[in-house]
C-alpha cells in the first residue's frame, strides 16, 4: 500500500467520517443530540452536524457523498418508527441501492486512479531513458580529446 501524504490521509479520514455519519442518518440512529431530539431531513447540514465535518469541506472535496445523500433522500430511507417487516425490507433495499451506487462510483474512481498510476509509471520510465541518454551525451562531451597532429599534414 502506498504511503499517503498528510492531505490524502486527512481526506480519507474525513471520507470515513462522512460515510459513517450517512449510515447512521439512513438507519435513523444519529449520535448528535440535536438530531436525536427531532425529526431531521437528509441534507448536507444534517450530514455535517452528524459527522463533525464542515459543510464547505463536503461541498468542496466530497461530492460523491452529496450524491449518495441525495439518492438516499429521494428514496426516503429515514425511518420514523418501522411499523412492519415490509418497511424494514424496503429500508434495506434502499440502503442496498445506495451502496451499489457508491460501489459503482468507487470502481470508477479506482479505474481512474489505476490509469493515472500506469501513465505515471510510463512517464517515469520515459524520463529515466531520457536521463540516461543525456548522461551519456554529457560523459561523451567531457571525455578528453587528444590534439595530436595527423601524419602527413
Folded structure, characterized:
By secondary structure, the protein is an all-alpha fold. The chain has six helices and no strands. The chain has helices at 6-27, 33-36, 44-51, 55-61, 63-75, 85-142. α5 (63-75) runs antiparallel to α6.
Please render the helix and strand layout as text.
Blueprint: H1 6-27, H2 33-36, H3 44-51, H4 55-61, H5 63-75, H6 85-142
Helix pairs in contact: 1-3, 5-6
**Which structural class do you get from the secondary structure elements?**
mainly alpha
Give helix % range: over 70%
- The N- and C-terminal alpha carbons lie at a distance of 68 Å
From the spread of the alpha carbons, the general shape counts as rod-shaped
Tell me the strand percentage band.
under 5%
Number of helices: 6
Q: Low-confidence stretches at least 5 residues in length (pLDDT < 50)?
A: none
Main beta-sheet annotation = none
How many strands?
Answer: 0
Element-by-element helix/strand order: HHHHHH
Query: What's the rounded overall pLDDT mean?
Result: 85
Rg: 29 Å
In short:
The protein has 153 residues and is mainly α. It has 6 helices and no strands.
Features of this protein?
single chain; mainly alpha
Amino acid at each position: 500500500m502506498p504511503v499517503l501524504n498528510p492531505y490524502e490521509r486527512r481526506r480519507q479520514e474525513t471520507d470515513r467520517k462522512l460515510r459513517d455519519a450517512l449510515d447512521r442518518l439512513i438507519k435513523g440512529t444519529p449520535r448528535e443530540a440535536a438530531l436525536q431530539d427531532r425529526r431531521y431531513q437528509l441534507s448536507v447540514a444534517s450530514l455535517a452536524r452528524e459527522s463533525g465535518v464542515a459543510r464547505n469541506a463536503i461541498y468542496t472535496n466530497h461530492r460523491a457523498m452529496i450524491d449518495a445523500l441525495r439518492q438516499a433522500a429521494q428514496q426516503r430511507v429515514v425511518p420514523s418508527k418501522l411499523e412492519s417487516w415490509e418497511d424494514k425490507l424496503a429500508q434495506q433495499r434502499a440502503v442496498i441501492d445506495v451502496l451499489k451506487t457508491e460501489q459503482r462510483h468507487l470502481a470508477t474512481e479506482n479505474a481512474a486512479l489505476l490509469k493515472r498510476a500506469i501513465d505515471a509509471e510510463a512517464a517515469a520510465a520515459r524520463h529515466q531513458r531520457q536521463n540516461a541518454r543525456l548522461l551519456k551525451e554529457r560523459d561523451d562531451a567531457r571525455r578528453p580529446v587528444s590534439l595530436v597532429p595527423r601524419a602527413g599534414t
